């Protein structure tokens, strides 16, 4: 049966906003001073290389050395941040009646448009 015929108490309209599972701290920028990267390397030489990369990219991180047998590097967070590409800026396409960019001398609409 329908709920509109039987009163079950106040229906709270705010229930949709109480759901969990949302990212509550969306402004956590990895590699910032407040949220430094946690990196693990296997030698002191590699630690100096990684610290140089952090300084060049103006990022913050805590680099620790793990010299145990079978230890693996954990620098995936750094490689992701370094591999991000910049925003691609595309030149504006000429208007229909402007000369074509290919240099033919024709209008864009008659040549490449």
From TrEMBL:
Domain of life, per UniProt, equals Bacteria
Which Pfam families does the UniProt record give?
SEC-C
Fetch the InterPro entries from UniProt. SEC_C_motif (IPR004027), SWIM_PBPRA1643 (IPR026368)
Q: Which Gene3D superfamilies match?
A: 3.10.450.50
Protein name in the entry:
Zinc chelation protein SecC
User: Which species?
Assistant: Corallincola luteus
């Amino acid at each position: 049966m329908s709920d509109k015929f039987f009163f079950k108490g106040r229906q709270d309209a705010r229930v949709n906003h109480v759901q969990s599972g949302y990212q509550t701290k969306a402004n956590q920028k990895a590699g910032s001073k407040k949220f430094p990267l946690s990196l693990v390397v296997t030698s002191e030489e590699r630690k100096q290389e990684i610290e140089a990369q952090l300084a060049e990219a103006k990022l913050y991180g805590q680099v620790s050395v793990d010299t145990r047998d079978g230890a693996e590097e954990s620098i995936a967070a750094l490689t992701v941040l370094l591999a991000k590409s910049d925003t691609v800026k595309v030149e504006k396409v000429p208007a229909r009646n402007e000369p074509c960019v290919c240099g033919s001398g024709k209008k864009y609409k008659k040549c490449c448009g």
